[in-house]
Amino acid sequence: MSVASRAALGERVVRARRRGWRAQPYLLLVPSLVFLAMFTYYPVLSSLEMSLYQLSPATHQQHFVGFSNYAALAADPVFSRVLVNSAAFLLGTVPVTIALALFLAVLLARTHALSTAFRTAFFYPTLLPLVGAAAIWLFVYTPGYGLVDVYLRGLVPGGVNYLGDPRYALPAVIALTIWKNAGYYMLFYLAGLQGVALELYETARLEGASAWQQFRAITFPLLAPTTLFVLLIASINAFQSVDQIWVMTGGGPDNATNLLLFYVYQAAFMFFDLGKAAALTVFLLAILMVIAAVSFRLLERRIHYEV
What is the pLDDT of residue 296? Predict the structure, then answer.
């Protein structure tokens, strides 16, 4: 066999081996694809299908109604109130929580004698189950002998039923959510600060930059990827809030704290309107997809990745 023939044969063998190995990456993805199909894609498609039917849990019969469930949502005054509450909850929790988490991370980034103790103290609320935290704050807001009422007794004579007054119920739940999540998001910012080169701050100090100028020109731009991630997680969590609502207010008073996911729970397990619950679920998924798309579209343009 000539040298050229051997080279051609060797090349064909190499090509055959490459073709044989091309299936391996896809085989490695099979477990993840099966998991996604079972717990993500199938529930989403099932909800889409269920939203087109009127279901009776008593007789297990279903009737095709098309988009009637979505039309009923448009005419539902409670649904309109729930949307307003959800938007207020999102705007009341996400920006404040992110700002507080970033402030705490910058404050505790430098190592000193009490840094570990402070980090543990701020992270401790994250370790509590949300139901337990809601029960604690339920006592804090109790009229008469709750901590808030005791400390504000001199300013508000007679006390205030914060969870029983439609004016204060949602802000009270927002305060609990901020307290619960700020320490968790602080960890992401602390991790992000570890990747910022110290030489940048040393150079800025030599140029006479103040602490605020260093934060505005160095810290905040380089933490933009972390901010994008935290923004997405915080927004999704805001629309998934249900535990604290169930424990503290039950959606009341007068639907003042009724949020979208809690309304899904009410429609499915209290009113047994499964078609409406499925339509609400589809609407919630659409909102989350829009938030993710807008966040990536608008914020990634201004993100600076350190090389």
Answer: 73
